[in-house]
Amino acid sequence: MADVTITIDHVESHVDEIIKEINEKTKKALSLMGETVEKYAKSDCPVDTGRLRNSLMHEAGDYDGDPCEYVGSDVEYSPYVEFIDRYHHPVGKAHFLRDGAQNHIEELKEVATAALGS
Q1: Angle at which helices 15-44 and 105-117 cross, to 10°
Q2: Residue of 42, 43, 52, 87 with fewest CB within 10 Å of its CB?
């Protein structure tokens, strides 16, 4: 039996490029998911003047060093409208932010899968 010798002169690592691509795709997926949640939240948001609904937004963030997407409003009364469901809202409903995400989990999975897979 013959001896086989393999000589490797150069090994090139692409780990940094792979990590960068994963991070970019993750941020893209989060942004698209935030956009989807924002869309549904706006459709369920109680409306009187439209200020709250128009203030709803999504933006990239950082949570303990990991990328995340925030969806919400900077209107001072937003938490009351979101969390207090004993008030009657003629248009829209309480928990519009929570339901914007929770009621559309399957669609959010599809959005994430498409963004991460492309």
Answers
A1: 150
A2: 87
Q: What is the pLDDT of residues 63-81, one digit of tens each?
A: 999 999 999 999 999 999 9
pTM comes to: 0.84
59 — phi, psi (to 5°)?
Answer: -155, 150
> Which two tokens mark 23?
């991070």
**In the chain, how many H helices and how many E strands?**
5, 2
Q: Return phi, psi of residue 71, to 5°.
A: -125, 125
DSSP bridge partners of 4: none
